[in-house]
Every structure is written in structure tokens, then in C-alpha cells.
Amino acid sequence: MVRVEELTKRYGALEALRGVSAEFPAGEVTAVVGPNASGKTTLMKSILGLVIPDLGRVWVDGEVALGNPGVRGKIGYMPQDPRFPENVKVAEVIELIEGLRGERPREAVEELVGEFGLGEHLEKPAGVLSGGTRQRLSAVLAFMFDPPVLILDEPTAGLDPLASSRFKDRVLAERDRGKTIIMTSHVMSELEELADRVVFLLEGAVIFSGSLEELRRATGEERLERAVARLMEER
Amino acid sequence: MRGPTYKIFRHTLSDLLRSRWVGGYAVLVGLMTGGLLYLGEEPTQAVVSVLNLVVLAVPLVSLVLGLMYHYANRDFALLVLTQPVPRGSVFWGQWLGLGFSLAGAFLVGTGLPFAAYAFLGRVDWVPVAVVLLVGALVSLVFTSLALLLGVLNDERVRALGLAIAIWFVMTMVYDSLLLAFIILAQAYPIESWVIGFSMANPVDLARVMVLLRLETAALMGYTGALFRKFLGTDLGFAVALGVMVAWTLIPAWWAARVFSRKDF
Question: Which residue, A225, B50, B136, B200, shows the most beta carbons closer than 10 Å to its own?
């Protein structure tokens, strides 16, 4: 489980997060939605320790996360636009991350490489990969250590239908194994397919937090896209 | 098991040693040094010419390649920072990898032609060793400055502009300002001031260090002569060396502090 309390972050005049509190329970996929610049990425980066909040607290799997790099061993992360070093082979990137985590899950890597069709790319320089292939490598790196928490920022952008559908199956399987999954996507139908819960952010504040069912009841809209639009209109 | 700093260092090094930019830099330095040795009458002359390379090209190349690497690698650094490693390890690992690559490219590019020349004729190794040491130090100083500019500026164009401005001031403007100062203040005892100015400019220090170890006092310039006069050859060299090390470590340490507190 991941919990954030009263997270506040300011970039100069811009208040990116204004006292955000939210809970992301284990065994569920929580979609973080909101328009551009609503604080979604800042929220996820605060959990990951990439952004240092001005105020507030973060717990990951029961541990205090701020100022505690060790806690990141419990998180798998897929960034919005993953980039890899130019001259290093894909297999070497995997080895580097294994080295930094101090784990070598060879079987999991083999399985994931097969699942995401990366086998033919392992010996290529990571810098020449196409967008979709980078995204698949990013998925392997996020899932390979079997972390209890997964943070997925626009994870299907650039994936072809086959990879995308395999990816979604993987997300649901991880959820059923009790993982805490936090994700964003601009594709509402995709969130509808995967998400159990929604945290809706607007201008750095939580406007709605609850299950999809609760969101439907609160807005009287069946479709997620409509429900979110309704929430925005009401503001 | 080795620590994360070492792993990031090794990774950065293996990325950069395969980079065509670093390779190209080493080859270019090699061709220039080889050419200077081939055309010159004796290797000490080539040392002085290599020194000009050290004070002009090495700072610029180190700044530009350092910044290029910093920005090209920024998104991957983001992924590395989400691993269970302290930010300090990520920074120092990259600093070491970049510094080793740039200093290494210079050492190989300059050292190999001199080593080859040693088969043909006699080489006086002391000035060669000093110019190699100084070139490596200059590479490290400007690696640190490049990373400092990189972590302070999210916009690469701005960082690159500042880098070129710093390079221009240290290599071009500095000499004119120093000359103007000496002329305007000639009625006063300004020697210690001039030594102080020299310490504020790693490029000038590099020149002083090499010239203190050459017998060509006429080439020394004003600051070099002052170093010899007031500190003597050995102490002057040691002081200049110490200040160069400080020029390497202080910007790097500052950059590490910024890196540790930064939002990515």
C-alpha cells in the first residue's frame, strides 16, 4: 500500500500539489487522472523520491519514503518517456539495474523478455531503440524484481496492440497477486479496463478519490470519460 | 559486492568509451600531437604546443562533451534515481565516469605519440609527464564545471551559453584584463594580487604549472615568472597543483549538493 498525506509542492509561483492526501491500496489498480499540469506526475515523482515535497509525508508498504532511498527497492517504475544510454546494449542496461538492486532474477527476466518480445533487441545499443521498444524495455525493468508497488506513467503510449494487450494482462495479473498499482493514462477506455479506483486531481488538489463505482454514482455517468468531464464541469 | 557508486561509474565509463565523440576527441588530440612532434625539431617544442592545446581546446571540449552527456543522459538518470541507491552515488558515479573518459581520451591521445616518438629519439619525460598531468587535471576541472552548469540549468541552451562564456573569459578575456591591470597598477606592489588572479583561473594555472617545469623561462609570462620568484619552482608547482585539485573538487562538490536536493 502507498499513502500520501498533505503533500505540498511549489515550483516558484506554481503550486503543483496543494495538500494532497490519498491512499493507494494493495491489490487494486488506482488511476490518477486529471488534466495536464494538474499534479499527476509531481504526485508520482514525490512517491518515487524524484521530487522532494515542501511538506507532507509518504509511506510505501509501511515504510516512510522521504529521505529513504532503500524504499525504492519496493517500487517498479515506468516513466512517461523512457530513454536509455546511447552506446550501452539492452542486456547491459538490464544488468546495471540488477546490479543497483543487488538482485539477479534471471528467470523473471527471461520470461518478461519473451513476453514483451525483446529477445532480438538484447544485443542492440539501447540508444537506437524505437519508442515502443523503449517502452517494452521499461516494462521489463519495472516488473522484473517483482516489487510490491508499481508506478506506471502513461505505460502504453507507443505500444503496438499486441504488446499493449500483453501489458494489460500483466497489470491485471500483478494486481490479482496483491500489488499496489498506480497508473496514469490519457486513454480513458484503458483506465476503465484496468482501474479499480480513481484519484482525480485538479490544480494540485484531490477533487475525487474512490472506486469506479462510487465515481459513477457521484456523477451519474456510466463512462469514465464522461464522469471525469462532469467533475471538471462542476468545478 | 561493489557499491552503487562503482557500478554507476563503470556503466558511465563503458557508455562513454564507446561514444564516437570521446573516441573522436582522442584521435584528434593524437593526430595533433603526432603532427606537432613530426613537424617540430625536438619534443620539448611539441610540449609547448601541446600546452596550447591544453589551455584552449581541452577546457572547451570538456565543457561541451560534459554538458552533452549530462543532457543526453538526463532521462536515464531519472530511471537510475528511482532505484534504491542514494543520489550521491548516482552523481559521483557519473562524475567519475565522465572525468575518467575525458581525461583518459586526452592522456591516450597525447601520450601515445610521445611514446612512439621515444622509439625514434630521446624524449625528456619530465615536461611530457607534467603536460599530461596538467591536461588531465584541466579535463577534470572542466568536467566538474560542466556538471555544475548542467545541474543548475534545466535548459541546455542556457548551460551551453554559460559554458562558452566561462571558456571565453578564462582563455581570452582573462589575459587582456590581467595585462590592463598590470599596466594600470604598475606603480603599486601588485605581485601577490597577480598570483591571486592566476589562482582564480585554472587555465592560467595550467600554463604556470607546465612552464615552471620547462627551462624556457622566456615563455613563462608574467604570472609564471611571479610564481617562480615568490614561491620557487617546487613550492610554486605544489601550490598550483593544490589549487587545481580544489578547482576540481569544489565545483563537483557543489554540483553534488545541488543534485541531491533537486527535483527531477
Answer: B50
